[in-house]
């Protein structure tokens, strides 16, 4: 028996519980001010950061560079102005410096919306950001602010703060007499976290394409297929909000329900593959009261193409079975971890061995996430581990029994070493994906699932030579 | 042999007479021939006023606000008896971080080796006494003051501030921070006040360095913008400050105090309040009037 098989055979079936380290090695989320990318993801919006030197750059290099090499674009990366707060701003407060920076930014930058985000320094010192930004807003400058000091949580929570800030300070009131009647067939989409999710642009494009396919008008809000701030201004007119993630965006939808009396549909599973996507579209259609004939025709057309590719794919899949992994581990944010698990279990028949959710979701959302994983299929459920520290996560990976075949890991670049040790296939599907160049690629919907299959099995077969 | 610089921090609740006491200590030390710096660590920047005829001096942070680089010498002003007067200063009320300001000001003096260059015998830090954040604890942290004294009256709130300071000292004592020299008991004019403050120092295992009575001489001197040492050098009060300064000059061994926890402090003050009420009831009891 080769040495690795001895090791595999001797592994306990239940993961040993590693000792907690109280530290985080190899981060899987960034500071709250990383939500500057939420602003930068809106076409022609520019974040203004009020923080120490290096804070904003670090967010950019982490989230938008060494993560799919996505780049800064119009308003992100090197474009985003910063106060570069120093000791002077700590001792005397940074309000004057911020005001000076906003003035200067208005001179040299052309944007439809500016979003001021604060880092730890002004939030600790207690700078009154509202008092600085308020007069600009009164002058009619399209500018909002969000307090995103690091101690307020990670970039997921920062994203919630920024979207809330834009809604409350920029979108503001809705008056049917002035703004026109509500459009029942328009939907606002709250889903993957822009930039942090490596494939967000492609994913949002596919979601938009699908929803348009069944007859909706879509405010996708972020990315190249968004109409920018005009879409944000139109949020209150939409018939409903769609939250397409286990928890991210849910608070926003609840807030919109409260302020605009706007209903929302919460669908925790981001759809990957024909079955999940069709189910998703039918649920949305029923919620929005769309014509079933149109919906069914769209789904049928998509399925015809999808399953046609599947038909050809089955030759490979059935012949090559001996070289393909049977058990998988997934390590990522709850949206992708859940979406992938659903697809892998239901469409490929793979066996879940370890599910790790890494974005430290708020405590009150965890039982809901656990419930989703417990019902991946009628007869398949899996426990879920909430863990941020890669050292601990990798201990769990090493302690997991994957059977006699090499497993497949869906994770990040941080899993490269453990994957090598286990001779596992690794598909990098989340932050940080530092060896992937990503433009419009998507892994969701009908089209994304095909790309995902290509990626999974290219990775697998290429390891055999 | 090079002489050893002695750095002393004096803490106390705002308005308790801390700057008055500190300035008189500095003045008495200067009068005795020592080279002294008084370093005010309070955003109000009025610690050294009575050493300079009642005038304000630009603070270290005033200079830092106006200039990227500051020569520490520009923040040092001569006062009574050649005392080097420095004010750390701070931001406008309600903005910025005053605690960080004090750290910045003390660091600037250290970076430019001012204490050594001026060949000082004493640096006396006059610090806002509530130790509300890390910045106000800077003088008691490693490498700054060796001895801490606290000015306290027998008022409960002053004792509360002193107790908080003791907690700060206790916290930093394991990391080489300054230890407590004792309590300067200010405004102690009655036996009862004396018993309260004596009981507090006994319970917290420290000592009284000097009892300082409330005196009109001090007020008169301050109104002239002077210390008592300068304005009324032959007064009894001036001699009390001289005795205090001498004790501080001779003081060598400071200790870690044992601060009371919140409940103990409350119980302790309540017991003294009961005693006070009992005494007053006895004094005003009708029987007391007829007897």
CATH architecture field of the largest domain in chain A: 3-Layer(aba) Sandwich
Helix/strand/pairing category of chain A: alpha/beta
Q: How helix-rich are the residues of chain B, as a percent range?
A: 40-55%
Low-confidence stretches of chain A: 1-13
Largest sheet of chain A: 5 strands, parallel
Beta strands of chain B, count:
8
Count of DSSP H/I helices of chain B: 11
Distance between the termini of chain B: 70 Å
Q: SSE order of chain B, as H and E?
A: EHEHEEHHEEHEHEHHHHH
Q: Tally the structural domains of chain A.
A: 3
What is the CATH topology of chain B? Rossmann fold
Quick one: overall form of chain B? globular
Strand content of chain B: 15-25%
CATH hierarchy: architecture of chain B: 3-Layer(aba) Sandwich
CATH topology annotation of the largest domain in chain A: Rossmann fold
Proportion of residues in β-strands of chain A: 5-15%
Give me the secondary-structure category of chain B: alpha/beta
Q: Would you tell me the overall average pLDDT of chain B?
A: 91
Return the CATH class of chain B. Alpha Beta
Q: Quaternary status of these chains?
A: heterodimer
InterPro entries (chain B): NifH/chlL_CS, NifH/frxC, Nitrogenase_Fe_NifH, P-loop_NTPase
Catalytic activity (chain B): N2 + 8 reduced [2Fe-2S]-[ferredoxin] + 16 ATP + 16 H2O = H2 + 8 oxidized [2Fe-2S]-[ferredoxin] + 2 NH4(+) + 16 ADP + 16 phosphate + 6 H(+)
Protein name (chain B): Nitrogenase iron protein
Keywords (chain B): 4Fe-4S, ADP-ribosylation, ATP-binding, Iron, Iron-sulfur, Metal-binding, Nitrogen fixation, Nucleotide-binding, Oxidoreductase
């Amino acid at each position: 028996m080769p040495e690795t098989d001895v090791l595999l055979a001797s592994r306990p079936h239940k993961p040993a519980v590693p000792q907690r380290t109280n530290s985080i090695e190899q981060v899987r989320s960034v500071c709250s001010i990383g939500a500057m990318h939420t602003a930068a993801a809106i076409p022609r919006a520019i974040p203004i950061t009020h923080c120490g030197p290096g804070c904003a750059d670090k967010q950019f290099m982490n989230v938008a560079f060494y993560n799919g090499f996505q780049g800064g674009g119009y308003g992100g990366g090197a474009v985003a102005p910063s106060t570069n707060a120093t000791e002077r701003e700590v001792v005397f407060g940074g309000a004057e410096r911020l005001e000076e920076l906003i003035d200067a930014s208005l001179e040299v930058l052309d944007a439809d919306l500016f979003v001021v985000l604060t880092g730890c320094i002004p939030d600790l010192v207690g700078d009154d950001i509202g008092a600085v930004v308020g007069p600009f807003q009164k002058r009619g400058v399209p500018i909002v602010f969000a307090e995103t000091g690091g101690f307020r949580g990670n970039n997921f929570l920062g994203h919630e703060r920024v979207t809330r800030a834009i809604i409350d300070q920029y979108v503001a009131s809705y008056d049917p007499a002035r703004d026109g009647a509500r459009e029942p067939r328009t939907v606002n989409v709250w889903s993957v976290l822009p930039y942090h999710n490596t494939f967000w642009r492609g994913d949002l494009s596919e979601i938009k394409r699908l929803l348009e396919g069944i007859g909706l008008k879509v405010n996708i809000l972020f990315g190249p297929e968004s109409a920018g701030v005009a879409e944000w201004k139109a949020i209150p007119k939409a018939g409903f909000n769609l939250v397409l993630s286990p928890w991210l965006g849910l608070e926003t939808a609840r807030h919109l329900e409260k302020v605009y009396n706007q209903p929302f549909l919460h669908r925790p599973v981001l759809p990957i593959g024909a079955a999940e996507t069709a189910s998703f579209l039918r649920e949305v259609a029923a919620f929005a009261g769309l014509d079933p004939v149109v919906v069914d025709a769209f789904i049928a057309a998509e399925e015809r193409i999808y399953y046609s590719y599947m038909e050809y794919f089955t030759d490979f899949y059935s012949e090559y079975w001996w070289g393909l992994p049977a058990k998988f581990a997934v390590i990522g944010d709850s949206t992708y971890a859940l979406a992938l698990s659903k697809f892998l279990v239901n469409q490929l028949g793979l066996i879940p061995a370890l599910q790790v959710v890494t974005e430290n979701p708020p405590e009150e959302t965890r039982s809901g996430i656990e419930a989703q994983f417990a019902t991946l299929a009628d007869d398949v459920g899996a426990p879920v581990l909430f863990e941020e520290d890669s050292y601990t996560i990798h201990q769990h990976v090493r302690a997991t029994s994957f059977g006699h075949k090499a497993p497949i890991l869906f994770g990040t670049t941080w899993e490269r070493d453990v994957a090598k040790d286990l001779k596992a296939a690794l598909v990098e599907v989340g932050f940080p994906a530092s060896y992937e160049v990503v433009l419009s690629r998507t892994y969701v919907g009908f089209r994304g699932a095909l790309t995902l299959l290509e990626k999974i099995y290219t990775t697998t077969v290429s390891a055999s030579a | 042999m090079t002489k050893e610089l002695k750095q002393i921090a004096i803490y106390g609740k705002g308005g308790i007479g801390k700057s008055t006491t500190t300035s008189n200590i500095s003045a008495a030390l200067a009068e005795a021939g020592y080279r002294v710096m008084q370093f005010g660590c309070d955003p109000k920047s009025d610690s050294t006023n009575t050493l300079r005829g009642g005038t304000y001096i630009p603070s270290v942070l005033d200079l830092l606000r106006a200039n990227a680089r500051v020569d520490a010498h520009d923040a040092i002003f001569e006062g009574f008896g050649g005392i080097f007067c420095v004010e750390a200063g701070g931001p406008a009320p309600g903005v910025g971080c005053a605690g960080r300001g004090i750290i910045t000001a003390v660091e600037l003096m250290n970076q430019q080796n001012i204490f050594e260059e001026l060949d000082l015998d004493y640096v006396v830090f006059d610090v806002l006494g509530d130790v509300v954040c890390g910045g106000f604890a800077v003088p008691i942290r490693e490498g700054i003051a060796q001895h801490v004294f606290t000015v306290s009256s027998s008022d409960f709130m002053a004792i509360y501030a002193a107790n908080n300071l003791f907690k700060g000292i206790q916290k930093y004592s394991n990391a080489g921070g300054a230890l407590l020299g004792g309590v300067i008991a200010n405004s102690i004019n009655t036996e009862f006040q004396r018993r309260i403050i004596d009981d507090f120092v006994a319970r917290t295992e420290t000592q009284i360095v000097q009892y300082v009575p409330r005196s009109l001489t001090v007020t008169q001197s301050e109104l002239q913008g002077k210390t008592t040492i300068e304005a009324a050098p032959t007064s009894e009060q001036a001699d009390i400050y001289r005795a205090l300064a001498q004790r501080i000059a001779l003081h060598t061994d400071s200790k870690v105090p044992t601060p009371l926890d919140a409940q103990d402090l409350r119980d302790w003050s309540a017991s003294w309040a009961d005693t006070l009420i009992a005494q007053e009831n006895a004094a005003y009891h009708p029987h007391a009037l007829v007897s």
